[in-house]
Amino acid sequence: MADEVLSPHPAWREIDDYCAGRLLAFEVASVEEHMFECKRCSDLTKQIRFASQVVDGWTAVSHGYAHGLQRRIAEGLSRAESLAPALLRSRLSDWRARWSDTVGGAVRLIVRTPGKTSELVTSGLEAILSPAAPFPVFELVPTRTRGETTVAESPVKGILPKASIAVTGNRIVVVVRSTPEESPPLIVLFPQNSDQAPLVQAAEWSNESASWKARITGIPTGDYIVALSPSPFEDKSTQDV
Ligand SMILES: [Zn+2]
Fold it and tell me: pLDDT by residue (tens digit) across 56-82?
């Protein structure tokens, strides 16, 4: 006799159902009676309960975080639209209508007090990346720091355009390699602090570097999501190999 348990061990499935509260009263009584005399099954029950709490907690936190980011984009776009000059308003309205709370690329920007190096964070923004955007860009994976300038670049994949964001102190330069026929990419800075208004700028074509460029200077101290509009490269998605 390996152990001195009188009743047979419940099946794994039954213990799982017990932990999830899916058993009827008489089944619960039977399982509890067994666990009273069986350390193996009562330990297993504790492990299952602990694991499911961790999973539930994790899901709630990450879901809440993702939802918060999406809301920030949706509200920020709406606010940007109401503040923007007429020329940009229709583009923002189009962005909102077609892509709602998602963006073509994003990076988090932290501008600290003057004299301190600003920071780019390229992770944790997956929830707001447009799944349909053929501009998978700002995963912006590799980040490098050269002196006071930090650069985040989009990975180069096939024929897809390449983009970069460089921050030096309180100014950023966004470069998007594409063609001048495209509509200019919009760059929006969504502040975390709701007292601050979003900053919007359309990139301008630079013949010199054969790319779209935007320069935003004098960014107030704060925590931002720098986002690119999803639409400019839409037509190219079908050519993606
Ligand atoms: Zn047992």
Answer: 666 666 667 778 888 899 999 999 999
Q: How many CB atoms lie within 10 A of CB 182?
A: 18
Q: How far is CA 102 from CA 58, 137, 187, 238, in A?
A: 23, 13, 13, 20
Q: How far is the CA of 56 from the centre of ligand 1 (A)?
A: 26
Pair 12, 19: CB distance under 8 Å: no
Q: Which residues of the chain, if any, have pLDDT below 70?
A: 1-6, 53-63, 131-147, 155-161, 231-241
Ligand 1 mean position, distance from CA 55 (Å)? 25
Interval between CA 45 and ligand 1 midpoint (Å): 10
239 CA distance to ligand 1 centroid (A)? 60
**Per-domain residue ranges of the chain:** 89-235
Q: What is the pTM of this model?
A: 0.68
